[in-house]
Amino acid sequence: MVRQFARIAGIIYLLVGLVGFIPGLLSPPTGPDLAVDAFHGRLLGLFPVNLVHNLVHLAIGLWGLSAARSLDASVGFARGLAVLYALLGVMGLIPGLNTMFGLAPLHGNDVWLHFGTALIAAYFGWGVARTDATRT
């Protein structure tokens, strides 16, 4: 199941990264100003993104697809994603850090999305990973 999680998460992040480059799906941005304003807006009117944010989504998508090739890599992906997204969720709550030093928006609806992603990834990285390991 952890390998499927890595594969599905990889596909989702690749798609979200690509969709972030479609201007018609971006609403005008809200929140703090960014140093990187290319593709800055609210994806589907809900989630703040910009060029850097989209590139990170693409990188995470590639990481997930690559990790899906083995159980150990998938577990590492799930655990790494859990830690990374928990950190991003916390950063989104702190003024100044909620723009990753002006590089990418982490505020608004991204906060709950990041915490939710961290919880799901933790479930697969630490919970499901144990049952997958005992099956092999």
TrEMBL record:
Q: Which UniProt keywords apply?
A: Membrane, Transmembrane, Transmembrane helix
- Give me the segments passing through the membrane: 7-26, 46-65, 77-99, 111-129
A Pfam family that the UniProt record links to this protein: DUF4383
User: This protein is called what?
Assistant: ABC-type transport system involved in multi-copper enzyme maturation permease subunit
